[in-house]
Batch of 2 targets.
Target 1
Amino acid sequence: MAKKAVASMQNKSEGRAFSKVIKMVKSPKTGAYIFQEDIIPNDKLNDHLKK
């Protein structure tokens, strides 16, 4: 039986360095609201939300 080496090689703190941001933006074409989903590093979180 083969062992899965991938699971043991992952750094558990790497996943916490990113956040999923869901932003509601008004579409210029139709005027309806759309949701934009982005996964960004935590250190650039404030810059992304100011846009």
Target 2
Amino acid sequence: MVASQTHDRRAGFTLVELAVVVVIIGVLAAFAVPRFLDSVERSKAGEAFNYLATIHSAMERYHVRQGTYADDLDELDVELVAPEYFTVGTVEVPSTEADLETGWELTLTRVGASAGFGEYTVVFNHDGYDGANSTIPDAISVLQTSSS
């Protein structure tokens, strides 16, 4: 009978054991949540890169046919759907270029909550991605490779 009384007392978890489990879950969450938020924002930034890569290809096709770059995205031979998380600027002629025959530039600006990264921009021009004028943080740039 003594053995069954001891067994009944040990049927559940102690408060200390539960507290240890809660602390371990909290520590794991503290490491996982920021990485998850970075991944989510990186996928949203990927939307900008895909959109601008499509524009870049269409601009090059337009340039081959017309001898100049388009000054309006509606002139391109692609059906564009506006990005959900970015505002699209207008096609600009870079200050270092004389006119649309030799160059163009388009900027997308992040709108809305961005997982603590704030407002950032992704810029493409006639050469492709313009890292010098883009303000996208390295932590979420789709051009950065993950080391883990």
